[in-house]
Every structure is written in structure tokens, then in C-alpha cells.
Write a structure and sequence with these properties.
The structure is a homotrimer of 269-residue chains. The first copy, chain A, is an alpha+beta fold and 269 residues long. Helices cover 20% and strands 32% of the residues of chain A. In chain A, helix 1 (16-27) packs parallel to helix 3 (127-140).
């Protein structure tokens, strides 16, 4: 049974997600629908871009990932289907998929414009229901991508402004908090490999992050490697740098939130 | 595989919804269970009535819609099964289904009182688990409705007090905010057709809504048809009038919430 | 199709639950995954212990219950699989399963340490994804428990500190609020049978609970057995004592919350 994952900014307080599932099952009763996440901050394309990037590979090959974070709904922005590493992605072409092809080849990109695969009535307010969900359901029924619309030049796809952080000439990494999770952990856009690269270049020093008057030094292996209520740096489940507090809420304790900067420097250990 | 949709006021913070799913799968392992919504405000029958009315038709024929918004649990209120337009509905008979038969014929109505289809032990606090979920599961196994209880006169079914708004003799529409969605959009009980009827009668004028000192004029086709942070009227995904703010939260900006009145008048454009 | 239930403290705001589902379906595409609950307060093992105890029996036999409330993730705490009354449980060995065997025989207990059934890469921050979800998926594919690791002495399993309340020598029951549900109802660890035992010993008296200046007297059969906004005691859906308010929020009205004491005494009716 084909899997369809859903990633939206709809939350769970309204019927929007449930109705999309009804639409999918009306077209393909065999689809397995999985909620990846619905609590992207309203219209936060960057947050969604990082989430789908770090999550999709845990799903079976041929999963169809539906992403509806769509501030431009009803305007002329494109809806696209991409095939990347044997996964399918259906989303508005607003950059939300753009981290997926940083190091990976796009196999196929289609501009979804064949209304035969939409609901008969298409509203101006809810393309998730009227276009994206039905298109995903049709893909799960093996409709070939080329039937869904016209081929698209990969270079025409939109990208987000905030890709993964890099090492700067000053030998530091300036990253950003992409999400604060339920536990108050600060999820950054600094990949593990970038931290390790920085450290390898300066093996006598340790990475340090300063947050207000606080300073977190060195990478921990577990949340419990530091005393309770102490801050720590760890490679989190997204394989990026995470700033956390053992049995505490880092966001509250350090007063740091989404979109704040996180600067990793090197200091003597 | 038969689909069972769930609409409740249980929220997601407790085990109530999960346990209902366990009960359903214990009776029918093949049931496909879809969360329509669980965040109806506690005991808000009107909010649930509008939600199920605008959502059910997006599900496959023969879906069994379970509605548990049930302030009278444990008292003598009836539990009913209705069949309407090839969909099934199981709910307390408290008006929550009453918008469904405004323009549609009820095919069948049953007073659920055959305890053979309940859990062996029926509590006084959780009929969703002990009666409604198992009855829905048995329907999904093709138990005939007449086995579930006695036939019911359609005229004996309860209705809610707040049906869709109509045009008043003063040539205006006085509606109500039924829900505020995650984005702060104000979802009203004013159907698109009622707005269009009002406008057709006065083609030189445009519809206007006043909210405190603000005034929203004319229907927009998309959220982005007005400048950012401006208010707009739009036919929303429920096919009813919605008051929104482009990239903003209308409820907060206009200080308008659930149960507040929305009056649509006509003015020169 | 085998059922896998999920109970975690991950909430729904992040991708953690969705990714676990992707992992499960990657291993067993036929698994039926049910969210039992994801809103256990962060790291509250006691709350989770009571929830799984009162919920699991509503699921089909052979359901695999995944419990991830795991403050010790990444440390040397064990992950265990238990078989109890034809249900399977996969969880960290931190006491979260310990109410399950109070009155029931454990059929099998395994220390999960065969990494063949883990994801190839195991992080230090997310064993729910890397170990527990894949192990549950393999169990659903009928991998024998003994393949997953070494047999475990039942007496070595950890227990929580707060088992169900008992009658004290002073002829009262001192219990605790384990959860406050969405409606503000106070869910205690005082079992129905304990209340009934207390009452049987003193048939001329009625149970009483004092909350600040308020006093709730006698067991109600339904929430509506008392006037609106009045407090009541009732045997709730967990088959334990619940303190509620008819159409009101008991937690707010009585200013009582999780971990507060609830003392049931007997007084003249």
C-alpha cells in the first residue's frame, strides 16, 4: 500500500487535514496516510523546508510527501511534483522543497497544471484539498508524472534564502534557530558535518556557543552528559547542532527562540 | 476497506481518541480510521454541526462519521445513526447532525438501543468508547442499521438553534462567527449562495462588513488580493463567508471571536 | 494487519512522531499505527504509566504498544519488550510499564540488545526512532521476542514510586491527581474498587473530598447528576475516581492540578 505523508501549517484545531485525508481516500482507498507534521508556524516556508529535508528518508521508497505551506494560495505560484531519490514530493513551488536538492539529483520535476487530476471545483483558498491532495492520491495510483503537467527546468525551481550554515572566513559558523521543539530544544541549521569540519581544522580547541550571559562549551553525547538544568550542545535527531538543557527548556532558560542566531566559535577547551 | 471518520471535542491531550480507535480495531481490524477533528470547543454542538456539514462530502461514499460532542453523556439522551446521501453518521441526538438534513433527504434514522453492539461494560462517562465507537465499527462490518435499534421518526430528531443565516427584510444578512481557525480567519454561517443572492438583488452595490472601527468592502478572490495586513471577505473552504487578513490574524486584529455577530450590508462600491 | 499503538511525550508540534511512523512502515508496510497519546508531560513517567495501564486492554490482542517517555535516552538504561495478557509493550525500563504487572502475570520479558533490529545508525537523542520503533515493527512481523535480546528476570524490572492508592489505617484514602484532562477533570490514582471497599466497610457514611474551601460529597453516576458548575465525584473512564464539575473545569474552579493530593474520607451522608 502506497504511503502518503502530510506536512502542513494547518494545525489540528480545524478540519483542514481531515478533509484532505477524505479527498485522498476518495481517490485511492488503499493509500496509507501518515501525519508528518501539521504545526509548522503559519506560512513558515523555511521551517517546513528543514523539516521535510531531515525527515523524508525515514519513510519507505515511493512515499508521496505532501507539503502544504502555501502563503501564495490562489495566486499564480506553481504547484510542482518532484521525484528525488525514489521519493515523490507535491508542494507549492515556493522554496519549501529546495533543501532537498542541495546534494542530490532531482530525477523529475513537473509543473502540475492538468486539472483532470484536481477536484472538479477548485477554490481559491484551499489548494491543499482541491489540487495537492488529489494529485498525491493519483500519484499513489501510479499515474505517470508526465500526465500531471508539463516538464519543468530544474533551474526554474524556487529556493529559500536560508540554506545550511557554512564555516565563515573568520573560522566560525553563524547559524540560525529553525525550530524550537516541544522540549524547548533549539534546532539549528548547522549540520553535524560542518561542526566536525570546524573542529578538525583546530584540534586543540572546542566549539563554544554564547547565549546572553551563558556559554555552552563542547559537544555532549547525551542530554544527561551535563548536570541537570545545565546547557549543552548535541548533534540532534536531525543530524544538526541542537542546543538543549538537561531536563530543562533551553529556549526559556536562555531566552532564545526561532530565527535567533547561533554562533559557534572555537576556544581553548 | 471501510472508512470511519472521528469528530470529537476530546482534544489530543488525553487517551480518549486513541482508546476509541483501539475499540474500533478490536471489532473491525480492516477499518480505516481518519481524524476529522478533535478540537471542537468542549461541548460546542453548534461548532461541530457546521464542521461535519461542510466536511462529510469530501469522504468516500459509505464512510461512517462518528461525532462525539456529548454534554448529555450518561443521561437519557438518544444515540442515533442516520444515513444521508450514502454516508452514515453516529452521534448523540442533540442537534449536532441537524444541518445535514436542511436540503437533503434522510434515508434512514435509528435510535441505537441494542446493547448487543455496545462494549460489554458501558460506563456513564464515556459513551464514545463504550457505545458510539463499537456501533460505528459494527456498521463498518455491514451490520444492518435496523439491527442496531428501533426506527426513528425523522421529525423527532433534535435541531440546533443556529441554522445558516438568511437575508433579512432590511436587506442585510446577520450571521455569526462559528469558528476561528488556526490562521485567525473568522468562519461564519453565511453561505456563499446567500451572499450572491443579496448581491444579485442590488447589482450596483457591494457587500460590506463592519468590525469595530474597521470596514471590509467587497469580496476578494484570494487572500493576497488585498495589501498585507489588510482585511478581506472571501468565500472560504466551507463555501461560506470568511473574514480574513492577508498574512495576518483577523480575529486578533479585529478583536472578533466565536459567537460574535457578522452583519453584511450593501453599500455603494 | 498488526496494530502498533504509540504513547509518547513528543507532542504533535515536531516531526518526531511522524518520523517514527515512517520507520515502522519502512519495515512493515502492513502495520496499522494508532496514536494512543503524545501529550504526556515531558518526561512524566508516572502519567504515562497510568495511561497505558488503563488503555491497553481496549486494543486488539497482539497489539504492540510503543511507549517512549525516556528521560534517560542515550544512557545505559535498558529498553525492554514485555508480553502481558497477549499484548506486547516496548519501552525504556524506567517504570513506565510497572503498573501493568500489579495484578497480572508477565509472560515474557526481554532486554532489547540485538542491534540487528535497530536502524543502522543509532543516535544518542532519539531511540524512539532508532531502536523502539524498528523493534516494534519487527515484532509486528513476527520476529520471536527471544531474537531481540536476552531474557530478563521479571524482578529486575524497574517500578515507579507511585502505585495505586490504598486504604490507610485511618480509614481514608490518600491519592494523587495523575492527569488533568482536556475538560479539567481531575484523574486520580484511586481505583473504583478501593472506593467501594472503603464504603462497604462503613455503609452508613458517604465518601467526601475536600478541595480548599469546597467539599464534594457522595459519588455521582453522571456528570449531570449535580447542578451546573457544581463539583462531583465520579468513577471515570479509567475506572478510577475522578473529580469533575458539571459543564465546568474542575481544575480551574478548585485550583487543583497534577500531583496534588486527593484525600477521600467518610462522613455522615
Amino acid at each position: 500500500m502506497p504511503v502518503i505523508s502530510l506536512l502542513t501549517d494547518f494545525g489540528n484545531f480545524d478540519e483542514y487535514v481531515g478533509v484532505m485525508k477524505g479527498v485522498i481516500l476518495s481517490i485511492n482507498p488503499d493509500a496509507r496516510i501518515v501525519d508528518l507534521n501539521h504545526w509548522i508556524d503559519p506560512q513558515d516556508i523555511i521551517q517546513a523546508a528543514y523539516l521535510i529535508k531531515s525527515s523524508y528518508s525515514y519513510f519507505p521508497k515511493n512515499t508521496i510527501h505532501v507539503v502544504v505551506v502555501d502563503p501564495g494560495v490562489g495566486t499564480q505560484r506553481r504547484i510542482v511534483v518532484l521525484k528525488i531519490e525514489d521519493h515523490f514530493f507535491v508542494a507549492p513551488d515556493n522554496g519549501v522543497l529546495s533543501l532537498l536538492w542541495q546534494n542530490t539529483k532531482i530525477e523529475s520535476a513537473v509543473n502540475v497544471n492538468n486539472s483532470r487530476y484536481f477536484l472538479p471545483l477548485v477554490s481559491n483558498t484551499f489548494h491543499g484539498r482541491d489540487i495537492i491532495a488529489p494529485v498525491a492520491a493519483w500519484i499513489s495510483k501510479k499515474v505517470p508524472l508526465k500526465s500531471l503537467g508539463s516538464q519543468l527546468e530544474f533551474s526554474h525551481l524556487k529556493s529559500i534564502e536560508m540554506p545550511f550554515a557554512k564555516i565563515s572566513p573568520q573560522n566560525l559558523i553563524k547559524g540560525t534557530v529553525i525550530s524550537v521543539d516541544r522540549f524547548g530544544n533549539l534546532l539549528t541549521n548547522i549540520e553535524a558535518k560542518t561542526i566536525f569540519q570546524l573542529c578538525r581544522q583546530n584540534t586543540d580547541k572546542v566549539p563554544v556557543v554564547r547565549l546572553g550571559n551563558s556559554c555552552v562549551k563542547g559537544l555532549s553525547l547525551t542530554y544527561q552528559s551535563v548536570p541537570e538544568k545545565s546547557g549543552l550542545m548535541i548533534i540532534g535527531s536531525r543530524n544538526c547542532l541542537e542546543v538543549a538543557v538537561n531536563r530543562g527548556n533551553a529556549s526559556r532558560i536562555f531566552n532564545v527562540g526561532k530565527k535567533d542566531s547561533i554562533v559557534v566559535t572555537l576556544e581553548n577547551g
